[in-house]
From TrEMBL:
InterPro entries: Met_Sox_Rdtase_MsrB, Met_Sox_Rdtase_MsrB_dom, Mss4-like_sf. It catalyses: L-methionyl-[protein] + [thioredoxin]-disulfide + H2O = L-methionyl-(R)-S-oxide-[protein] + [thioredoxin]-dithiol. It is an enzyme of class 1 (oxidoreductase). Residues 9-133 form the MsrB domain. GO terms for molecular function: peptide-methionine (R)-S-oxide reductase activity. Its EC number is 1.8.4.12. This is peptide-methionine (R)-S-oxide reductase.
């Protein structure tokens, strides 16, 4: 897929820290319960750390106790891209930034999630940057 923000991997590597690059550009995962935003309650907007695109709002963040920040809905239907992921010996749905293609995490669906959408977007803290309200 062609993305609005399309840079050579060498440029991404130069702009991101090694850990940001590993997660955002190589579909890595930060360890559970270690991310900056796992437990934050600050209100605001979560933007893609790679390109700045608006992805999630804090009013859709909820406590899922999965180890990563969890949201039940992106800011718009065109904010994220969903990709079938068959790595790790299972079928999952990868979540990418629709603007630059960076890996954000995975989305899980089911009635067990206490959300209006029955979805849990498990997002790596290192994939996003919180812009607090009023800043």
């Amino acid at each position: 897929m062609a993305y609005e923000i399309d840079k050579p991997e060498e440029q991404w590597r130069a702009e991101l820290s090694p850990e940001e690059y590993r997660v955002l550009r190589q579909a890595g995962t930060e360890p559970a319960f270690t991310g900056e935003y796992t437990d934050t309650k600050t209100t605001g907007v979560y933007n893609c750390r790679a390109c700045g695109a608006e992805l999630f709002r804090s009013d859709t963040k909820f406590e899922s106790h999965c180890g990563w920040p969890s949201f039940y809905d992106p800011t718009g239907s065109d904010a994220v891209e969903l990709i079938e992921d068959r790595t790790m010996g299972m079928l999952r749905t990868e979540v990418r930034c629709a603007r630059c293609g960076s890996h954000l995490g995975h989305v899980f669906e089911g009635e067990g999630y206490p959300t209006p959408t029955d979805q849990r977007y498990c997002i790596n803290s290192i994939s996003v940057r919180l812009e607090p309200d009023g800043s």
